[in-house]
Amino acid sequence: MFHTVLLCLCFWRLDVFGDTVKISVNEGDSVSLNSDLTEMKDDDVIQWRFGNKNTSIAEINKRADRITLYDDVLNGRFRDRLKLDNQTGSLTITNTTTEHAGGYKLQINSEIKRFFLTVNVSVMEGDSVSLKARFTKIKDDYVIQWRFGDEITLIAEINVTADRITVYEDVLDGRFRDRLKLDNQTGSLTITNTTTEHAGVYERQINGVRKRFGLIVFARLPVPVISSNSSHCSSSSSSSSCSLVCSSVVNVSHVTLSWYAGISVLSSISVCDLSISLSLPLEVEYQDKNTYSCVLNNPISNQTTHLDINTLCHTCAVSMIVLISAAAAGFLFIVSAVVGIFCICKKCRQTDQEVETHEEEITYVVPKFYKRNSQKLDNKEEDHVVYAPIVKRK
Hints:
Layout: E1 3-6, E2 12-17, E3 20-26, E4 31-33, E5 45-50, E6 55-61, E7 66-69, H1 73-76, E8 82-84, E9 91-93, E10 102-108, E11 111-124, E12 129-131, E13 143-148, E14 153-159, E15 164-167, H2 171-174, E16 180-182, E17 189-191, E18 200-206, E19 209-218, E20 225-228, E21 234-235, E22 240-247, E23 255-261, E24 264-271, E25 279-285, E26 292-298, E27 301-306, H3 309-312, H4 316-360
Parallel strand pairs: 1-24, 3-11, 11-19
Antiparallel strand pairs: 2-3, 4-9, 5-6, 5-10, 6-7, 8-9, 10-11, 12-17, 13-14, 13-18, 14-15, 16-17, 18-19, 20-22, 21-22, 22-25, 23-24, 23-26, 26-27
């Protein structure tokens, strides 16, 4: 069963300042500019315009029963990206890029409503990112300024008339020092070796015309860790289950932690704009043949850890067998040691008995000597063997 826990939503943001609705969206996502109408009237004419030149990009004419999308204007930047709701007149822009950032004007008959769209660019911490100005070549009278943050601090400038390029890298406590590159042909700004300090809103002004970019810097993701909760080992006559948990080892934000069985999502938990540790449990059957993995991802990267069931999961029966085997091995070792000691002691006792027996069986011989008649020894005295009876004593 699929389970999802969302701790917050991170799709797009809407603020109202005066008569202008400010919206931010992540690059690649879709965004809707709402007309606030529940239903159009039969004589309504709705027009959507974009940019400082108020270029028409979409129109609904209820009188003529006509819906028109001008998606080939502005070098086709809106081609196949615009959707117009024929009931409410709301405009949806799909697969957004930084080219779609800027001002939009909605005109319903004689009423006007304004929107300002900021498209957020995502980058991995340590990588470089370019905020493009969309010019193949800047004109001779252009003055291009790049500003950053809530205070709109000036960080870079090209003044074509004065033939001057300036990078203010020491502002804001030097956070941009040795990190800014300005293209003198197109006016694009590149930020190298990004950190989370560079995340925020960048504003490009060309002769007073503004365009905003939102930069999101993602920290590098840790590898998720899968561990076994051995205290939840359970078994029955038919099956055994294993309780697991996957977690991130450090605090991260703007991420989703998910369990997969093959390519299918089993469960997930997401967090935005918070720095908390994430963990996600999973219960699997010990004999399960599926391939399980835990994935930690954000919009631009991911880290995956694959589950090794044989290493982390043991049934209660298997655990009992292991315990019994270990106990039996220990018992056999003790018995062997006792038997060995017994045999050694017994051998020692036998040796002592043998020594005592040998001492009791020693035979003592008492010789008796007999002397022959000396008369028969006329010529030469010779040695003679003397025999004596043997007496055994015990």
